[in-house]
Amino acid sequence: MQTVLFPLLIPLLFIVLTLFAWNAPRLQRMLSLFGSSALLLAALSLLAQVQTGEIAVTQIGNWPAPYGITLVADLFSAIMLTITGVVAVLVAIYSLEGIDENRVAHGFYPLFFALLMGVCGAFLTGDIFNLYVWFEVMLMASFVLMALGGERAQLEGAIKYVILNLTSSALFLSATGILYSVAGTLNMADLSIRLPEVNSPGLVTTIAMLYLVAFGIKAAIFPLFFWLPASYHTPPVAVTALFSGLLTKVGVYSLVRVFTLLFLTDVAFTHTVLLVLGGFTMVVGVLGAAAQYDMRRLLSFHIVSQIGYLLMGLGLYSRAGLASTIFFMAHVIAAKAALFLVAGIIRRVSGSFDLRRVGGLYRDQPWLAILFLIPALSLAGLPPLSGFFGKLALVRAGLAQGQYAIVAVSLAVSLLTLFSMTKIWMEAFWKPIPEKSPSQNREAGYKFSLVFPALAMGLISVVLGVLAQPVYGLADQAAGVLMQPALYAAAVLGGLR
Amino acid sequence: MTLLLAIVIGVLFTVGLYMMMRRSLTKVLIGLMLLGQAINLLIFTTGRLQRAKPPLIPLGAEQISQSADPLPQALILTAIVISFGVTAFALVLARQTYTVLGTNDMNELRDTDIIPKYHPESVPEEEEGL
């Protein structure tokens, strides 16, 4: 059984099925539930398989590595796939109500599965050019998802998003071309063996920096993040939640992959750059959020800020650092998606995303308030929620490495995050309803398909906090594999025997 | 030959990046296309140039020597196909944006940034979509 293939085949199958059901929107909605659940199951079975320490490898077309394209699933990939599956299921449920008929009629669901296929492909591939191809699959789907609906703001956001992401792809491709000329291979396992032998370390570091910029644009790190708050708030909330959960995280995943597998010739330089950029990303993101009144824009800036924490663990480059990055990834995807979904419900209930036009929700909708409060406090890092343990692990990893500056920055940014969440709380829930408030629609907040995904994401955050020990153990095990590139190389190139 | 191509690549990158910094959306897209061509040439050149040496095994021989590397060409082919699709989409998007927003000037595309809708001072009257 080639379990590695299923996370790619299932979305592909459902692209085809939903295309066949083009004229039957209800059928498409049902299919999306089945498809995303099947993806989650496939990811879980892969996780169970590689959890034993095995690295699952499939050589496409039976061409032995490094000549063919290799699909590799180590524990880190499997964890990312599982998170993707969870986000896919919950967004599919939310989309039942959250995506209008018009968008479904114009192909929302085929694009949804195309995006998932691109994301899963990026997590699984063991070939750096193939990674570029999966990035393009994912980007094409996301371009159309962002513009689908054709509202003014959407088109404007899509233009900015498309141009900056194409620039990033251009850099990615040129870096790959130069990498091939230097190392003569594109298979990542093979590269990890050959790159240390290249006798021009300066050139390798240059390539590493090109990749940093290319993936940095996708991951929205400082100073390359400007496209994100300019575009992420324009599509429907379900799409934004999907993007915030998956797209930037693919950028971070790629950074982790190349900076733990390939570019280890000058760790003192490259990983310090990562650490510094991580610090700036945290600070700039959270300060940008402070000025915002549109909930979606405010949360978009927080995506940027949280990316900084993910970079911090990578920049520390220790087993503990990487483990905390992986744990934090699971936490931040759940918390962020939950917040976006709650913002969508607030919009439905009170008619606006603008914090100055909504109010009094705590009195009217106490349950909605709790729904918001859990992920918000988790994002800020209050115990016993997942954010606390993620940050605790990062801080401990930072102290162990003696990087006190970044630890101080991360703690200060936590406080500012709390301030930002308090702002939403005060404005949307605590203050009385403003006079210029738009029409209210009190029942909209109680639709099961809207509330359940937000609740489930919030509960995941709680569970990750309560079960922090075993989850961190899993992340630590994944980090252990990442810290030994030789294991990865042996698993992939073992086919040469 | 390599030197000549290196200069061409440099010029294409320069022109592409210059065009991308123009205000007109169409010129930005032209810049992106030029950038794509520059990168294709870059891959082609860094794959080591060989003249009239096809990567084929002659009849009866066991292996090839002194041949062109087929991989960069395969990469370029893939990149061309991808950039074709992406460019087609970007052009349609640009056209649709021009039709809906009535402007082609990047400097006027500010509604999703700070001016004027999201300025802290301005409270929007009506909102679109969900």
Automatic annotation (TrEMBL), chain B:
Keywords, alphabetical: Cell membrane, Membrane, Transmembrane, Transmembrane helix
Coiled-coil segments: none
Location within or outside the cell: Cell membrane
Bilayer-spanning residue ranges: 6-21, 28-49, 74-94
One Gene Ontology term, aspect cellular component: plasma membrane
Domain of life: Bacteria
Xref: Gene3D superfamilies: 1.10.287.3510
Name of protein: Monovalent cation/H+ antiporter subunit C
Species for this entry: Bellilinea caldifistulae
Recorded family membership: Belongs to the CPA3 antiporters (TC 2.A.63) subunit C family.
Pfam families recorded: Oxidored_q2 (PF00420)
